[in-house]
Automatic annotation (TrEMBL):
TM region(s), chain numbering: 54-81, 148-171, 206-230, 242-264, 270-288, 309-334
This protein's UniProt keywords: Membrane, Transmembrane, Transmembrane helix
Keyword Transmembrane helix in annotation: yes
Major place of residence: membrane
Recorded topology in the membrane: Multi-pass membrane protein
Organism: Candidatus Synechococcus spongiarum
Name of the molecule in the record: Permease
Family in the record: Belongs to the autoinducer-2 exporter (AI-2E) (TC 2.A.86) family.
This protein's GO CC annotations: membrane
Cross-referenced InterPro entries: AI-2E-like
Length: 363
C-alpha cells in the first residue's frame, strides 16, 4: 500500500471513531427521522385527499395529537399509574406464592419417587426457606427501579430534541432529503434517491402495521382478562399494547404482571392467563401481522431478536426501542446497495469465471 492508501485508511478509521463517539446523537437523529415519517403518514394523506398545503396539514396533525395526549393524560394515565403501582406491590407476594407452589410440588415428586425428601438439595431448600427474603429483595429492586424515574433528565432531553427535530423534518422533508443525497458521489445520487424512497416505504408500512397490531393486542388482552376476572384490566391491557412495540421481549414482560396477580387467586387462573397471552401472541404473529404488514420488509424472528440484544447492549434502552426500525432500514440498504448495486455486478475473471459461464444457470 502506498502513502495515499494508508492516509485514506487512517482517514476512514478516524471517521468511524468519530461516528462511534457520536452514536448517541446519531441515534437521536434516527429516532427523529422515524417520528418524522410517522407524522408524514397522516400529513401526506391530508395533502392527497384534502388538497391541503403541508404546513396546514402538519399543524392539524400536531393539534390532533396534542388533544389525544391531553385527553389520555386526564382519562387514562391516572388509573393506569394507580393500577400499575398495585401490580408492582403485588409482585413480591406473587413470587412467594409461586415459590411455595414449586416447593410443595417438588417435594411431592421427590416423595413419590424416592420415598423421602432428604435428598432435596440444600441450595434449593434454602431458596424455599428464604422465599420471603427473595420477595422483599424483589420489592426493594422494583422500588429502586421506579425511583429512577426522577433521574431521567438526560432521557427527557433526548426525547424533546427528537420531537423538535421530527417536527422540523416533517415540515420540510425535501430539503433535508436533498442534502443527504448531495453527500453521495454524483454518479450515485439518482440511485440513492430510489434507495431512500424504499427505506421510507418500508418504515411507513412497518409503523402502520405496528400501530394496528398494538391496538389489536391491547383489545384482545383487555377482553380476555375481563372474561377471566383478572384485575386491573386497563393497566394490563395498556401494558400489553405498549410492550408489543418491543417484539419477543415486550410480550414476555407483559405476561408477568397479570399472571402474577392471577397466581395470588389460583394457580389455574395464572395458567389460564399465560395460555391467553400465548394465544394472543400467536394470533398477532400468524393472523394480524401478516394481514396488516404484507407490504413490510420481512424480518426473520432470529434476526429481530439478535438485533434487539445487540442494539440494547451497544446503545442502551433507546437502542432497544429503535432496534427494529434500524434493522428495517439496514435490510433495505443491504438488499439495494450491497447486494443489488455491488455484489450482483461483480464479475469473476480467470478460470473460475470461465467455469461458471460454461456451467450455465442450471449448474
Amino acid at each position: 500500500m502506498g502513502f495515499g492508501q494508508w492516509l485514506g485508511l487512517l482517514a476512514l478509521l478516524a471517521a468511524l471513531l468519530l461516528l462511534w463517539s457520536l452514536k448517541d446523537v446519531l441515534l437521536v437523529l434516527f429516532s427523529a427521522v422515524v417520528l418524522a415519517l410517522a407524522l408524514n403518514l397522516p400529513v401526506r394523506a391530508m395533502e392527497r385527499h384534502c388538497d391541503w398545503r403541508r404546513p396546514w396539514a402538519l399543524l392539524v396533525v400536531l393539534l390532533g395529537l396534542s388533544v389525544v395526549v391531553l385527553v389520555s393524560s386526564v382519562v387514562l394515565v391516572p388509573p393506569f399509574v394507580k393500577e400499575f403501582r398495585e401490580l408492582i406491590e403485588k409482585l413480591p407476594q406473587a413470587l412467594n406464592t409461586l415459590l411455595a407452589l414449586i416447593d410443595a410440588n417438588y417435594r411431592a415428586v421427590i416423595l413419590n419417587i424416592y420415598g423421602t425428601d432428604s435428598d432435596l438439595p440444600d441450595s434449593l431448600a434454602e431458596l424455599f426457606r428464604t422465599r420471603t427474603d427473595v420477595g422483599a429483595a424483589l420489592e426493594r429492586g422494583l422500588q429502586g427501579l421506579l425511583g429512577l424515574v426522577g433521574n431521567l433528565g438526560g432521557g427527557v432531553l433526548k426525547v424533546v430534541l427528537a420531537l423538535v427535530l421530527a417536527v422540523m423534518l416533517a415540515a420540510q422533508p425535501k430539503p433535508y432529503q436533498a442534502l443527504a443525497i448531495r453527500l453521495a458521489p454524483s454518479f450515485y445520487r439518482r440511485r440513492l434517491q430510489v434507495v431512500l424512497s424504499h427505506c421510507d416505504s418500508a418504515l411507513g408500512n412497518w409503523m402502520v402495521g405496528l400501530l394496528i397490531s398494538s391496538f389489536c393486542v391491547a383489545g384482545l388482552a383487555g377482553i380476555g382478562l375481563a372474561v377471566l376476572g383478572v384485575k386491573p384490566v386497563v393497566a394490563n391491557a395498556l401494558l400489553a399494547g405498549l410492550l408489543n412495540v418491543i417484539p419477543n421481549i415486550g410480550p414476555t414482560i407483559s405476561t408477568v404482571f397479570p399472571a402474577s396477580v392471577a397466581l395470588l387467586d389460583s394457580p389455574w387462573r395464572a395458567l389460564a392467563v399465560v395460555v391467553l397471552y400465548l394465544g394472543i401472541q400467536n394470533v398477532e404473529s400468524y393472523l394480524i401481522t401478516p394481514f396488516v404488514m404484507h407490504k413490510q420488509v420481512k424480518l426473520l424472528p432470529g434476526l429481530a431478536l439478535l438485533s434487539q440484544f445487540v442494539f440494547a447492549v451497544l446503545l442502551g434502552p433507546l437502542g432497544l426501542l429503535m432496534a427494529l426500525p434500524l434493522v428495517v432500514v439496514l435490510q433495505v440498504l443491504v438488499r439495494e446497495v450491497l447486494i443489488h448495486d455491488v455484489m450482483d455486478h461483480w464479475l469473476l475473471g480467470g478460470a473460475a469465471g470461465a467455469a461458471i459461464a460454461e456451467e450455465g444457470p442450471e449448474g
